[in-house]
Amino acid sequence: MIEHPAAKPTVLVTAAKLAPEAVAILEAAGYAVPCTSGYPSEAELLAAIAEHRPVALLHRQGFINGTVMDAAAPALRVIARHGAGVDGIDLAAAEARGLTVTRAAGANSRSVAEHAMALMLSLLKDLPSVAAGMRDGLWEKTSRMTRDIDGVTLGIVGYGAIGSKVARFADAFGMRVAAYDPLLPAGPLPGPGERVADLSALLARSEVLSLHCPLDAATRGMVGAAELALMPRGAILVHTARGGIVDEVALLAALESGQLAWAGVDVFLQEPLDTASPLRSHPRVLPTPHLAANTPRGAVGMSTMAADCIVAVLAGRVPAMAGAVVVQGCLPAAA
Fold first, then answer.
1. What spatial distance separates the first Cα and last Cα of the chain, rounded to whole Å?
2. Considering 60, 103, 110, 290, which one is annotated as catalytic?
3. Which of 60, 63, 76, 315 has a CB 3.0–4.6 Å from the CB of 15, allowing a cystine?
């Protein structure tokens, strides 16, 4: 861990590293920027807070609960999420303590949308099993047929910054796009695709289902056995949203039964995913370790937006980025 002068106020990063561009923003504003280890436990967070007495937490990994917030009181003023999803922060606890919570809304949207499309295209073309066959000495030129992408119906749950980009990419491939998003204002979608008012109706049409919604009380466990059974037999699930939205036991059962042909999964209920998890080794799962946002543009964008939010809030200003403030906390009431 880098040593910093004791006189500097501290922004504690809840991960093993932060993009140098973001560190530079914070250091230029007069803050020291120590890091924890990757995926810190509550005990490690409490120890780091006791050591550094942070005025801000730049949250990447682990869970920030009321106990952690209380340990950082009274110095702590802001928790800035390195990304769009804030399910790793107890928002009610933050609001009760007058803390501001921000997020890097939209900073990684193109990176995640590209990853979702990469999973989708790979699975529509059966590439994992084709590649496995090649490694085993097969030559399936005349014995295997893969799918046409043009004309496949893609169902999107969540038509925000990421889902809308996936819709545009899919539309360019000639896919039929339908989307369900109860958070959007009434009316047609603001981009390609047909709006579907009911999740069940969307599932019944989705040859490919791609999830791009937040994890909250309404979406936790939203896709379970009953929902997967509504999809056309042999459908594909692409999941780059948040672990906990999909019932992983039901997902494995649907793959075993053939209800689902494939699942491309970047997010899991438990992260890091246990080495013994069948989701790592199932022949019909293409798993990736929650890295959809990990491109140079995505990583730097998330880091610098989180850093900018911290600098703004600690200076008493509302962050300039649209949608950045999740919990108002110590910001002026007019914000």
1. 36
2. 290
3. 60
Q: Report which of 64, 128, 134 is spatially closest to residue 100, judged by C-alpha positions.
A: 64
Structure confidence at residue 140 (pLDDT): 97
What's residue 333's pLDDT? 65
What residues are paired with 246 via a beta bridge? 223
**What pLDDT is recorded for position 1?**
46
Strand order of the β-sheet with 176-180 is 194-195, 176-180, 153-157, 208-211, 235-239, 260-265, 285-287
What is the SS3 assignment for 115? helix
Helix (H) or strand (E) holding 285: strand 285-287
Which residue numbers in the chain have pLDDT < 50?
A: 1-5, 334-335
> One of 81, 239, 242, 248 is an active-site residue; which one?
242
- DSSP-derived letter for residue 89 is B
Catalytic residue among 195, 271, 282, 284: 271
Tell me the backbone φ, ψ of residue 119, rounded to 5 degrees. Answer: -60, -45
pLDDT at 105 (0 to 100): 86
Examine the residue annotation and report whether 271 is marked as an active-site residue of this protein: yes
Q: Examine residue 272 and say whether the peptide bond preceding it is cis (omega within 30 degrees of 0).
A: yes
pLDDT at residue 322 in the model: 84
Instruction: Find the DSSP H helices in 75-224.
Output: 91-96, 109-124, 127-135, 161-172, 199-205
d(CA 60, CA 197): 34
Contacts of 66 (CB under 8 A, 6+ apart): 90, 93, 96, 97
CA distances 184 to 145, 158, 223, 241, 247, Å, are 39, 9, 20, 17, 25
Distance, in Å, from the CA atom of 49 to the CA atom of 139, rounded to the nearest integer, reads 58
The encoded tokens of residue 26 equal: 């914070």
Q: What proportions of the chain, in percent to the nearest 5, are helix, strand and coil?
A: 35, 15, 50
What CA–CA distance (Å, rounded) separates 224 from 140?
Answer: 35
pLDDT of residue 6: 52
Q: What is the Cα–Cα distance from 248 to 174, expressed in whole angstroms?
A: 30
